[in-house]
Amino acid sequence: MSLHLHPPFRAEHLGSLKRPAKLLEKRDAFDKKEISAEELKNTEDEAIKAIVQMQREVGIKSITDGEFRRHMFFDGVFDNMEGMEHVPEVPLYMFMEYVPDYIAFKKWEFKGADSYICKGKLKRTKPFYVPQFEQLKAFTKPEEHAGLKITMCAPEWYHLRHGEYAYDKNIYKNDAEYFADIAVAYQEEIQALYEAGCRNIQIDDPLLAYFCAESMIKGMEERGIDHEAILDTYIKAYNDCLKGHPKDMTVGLHLCRGNFRGGMHFSEGGYDRIAIKLFTQIDVDVYYLEYDTERAGTFEPLKHLPKHKVVVLGLITSKFPKLEDPVELKKKIHAAAEVIAGGTEKRSFEEAMNQICISPQCGFASHAEGNPVTEEDVKRKLALVVQTAKDVWPSDA
Fold first, then answer.
1. CB burial class (10 A; 0-12, 13-18, 19+) of residue 41?
2. pLDDT tens across 220-238, in order?
3. Surface-to-core class of residue 322, CB atoms within 10 Å of its CB (0-12 exposed, 13-18 middle, 19+ buried)
């Protein structure tokens, strides 16, 4: 198994970028049925062309559309899948109270939210992300196409949130049946993306990081839920979703601890609890890991990173405008490389450095409203990522 690089590139980002005010205004008007879908799309196109140019200017090669055609980062799969039913206001008993984001919402005196529940056999009857990729491709140069990145929703997204209520038991008898059909849908979408020219996908999954949170583990144990078995179910779901994917397509997995409105996080805890399974059992090429604060723990879990996989260290925060110290960033990169080099599979420091890239810890607008940063702040943050990469890997950035 060979190392996948270019993509990922030494200077990476996680997909979502700060939406311009005009785009937010138009989307709000569309939601209120004040403008047409065509008028919204024209505004999206204009904003995406500008954000593509910004990425070029700062030196980002894994160009995205900033997720400007979405409201939330996880849009795309379950809202387009046959068999999923939109529930405008889900009863509170259908939310698993041990899930960290529910705990956070409860503190806000959360009254309910819309969601999706499986009410029929799950099938991919239309594309999830292919149109977004094709439109991005149309706005970019041929030499940029191999690096274009599409971010995708995690396959277990609504399952962890709703637990036993995630699907109708008259449709699926158990989790294995439920995830089997989800896997087929992902396989079809990934193949369609590949045929459209996509060679770089990133699955965004804060839920796996929730298994690092003692609060969730304790809550699951109190309810008699085997959290290790659930984690194993999700790992199998990933591998089934990715089964047979083209080997010249880079598949990344992004873990963070929440990045809601205003940059709010939901959980804390290092990767130690899940590191062995995360790095050795999930069939992905690259891990995009949150590492901008102490809530993500130490680099020690990276000792389990196999030699054929890449880690993108999310050392720059997307939550606040203050720029990180480049000297400190370089020290952290070298510290991570030392851990990897001395890991369970010994390797040289130089080999370990070749397995590392850097990025912000998450997107700048996982939610449409985005984090408390300006568009200019985003540009400065990405420029810092690029310059640091050039300083650390001068011949490869």
1. middle
2. 999 999 999 999 999 999 9
3. exposed
Task: Quickly list H helices, the chain.
Answer: 21-31, 37-58, 100-107, 130-138, 157-162, 175-195, 206-210, 214-222, 227-241, 275-281, 326-341, 349-354, 375-392
Query: Structure tokens of 251?
Result: 């598949």
Q: How confident is the model at residue 263 (pLDDT cuts 50, 70, 90)?
A: very low
* pTM score above 0.90: yes
Burial 70-98 (b: 16+ CB within 10 A, else e): beebbbbbbebbebbeebeebeeebbbeb
φ, ψ of residue 276 to 5 degrees: the values are -65, -50
Spatial separation of the C-alpha atoms in residues 266 and 330, rounded to whole Å: 28
Q: Could you give the angle at the alpha carbon of 31 between the alpha carbons of 205 and 155, nearest 5°?
A: 20
Distance CA 42, CA 240 (A): 37
For the segment 95-132, what is each residue's pLDDT rounded down to a tens digit?
999 998 776 555 544 555 789 999 999 999 999 999 99
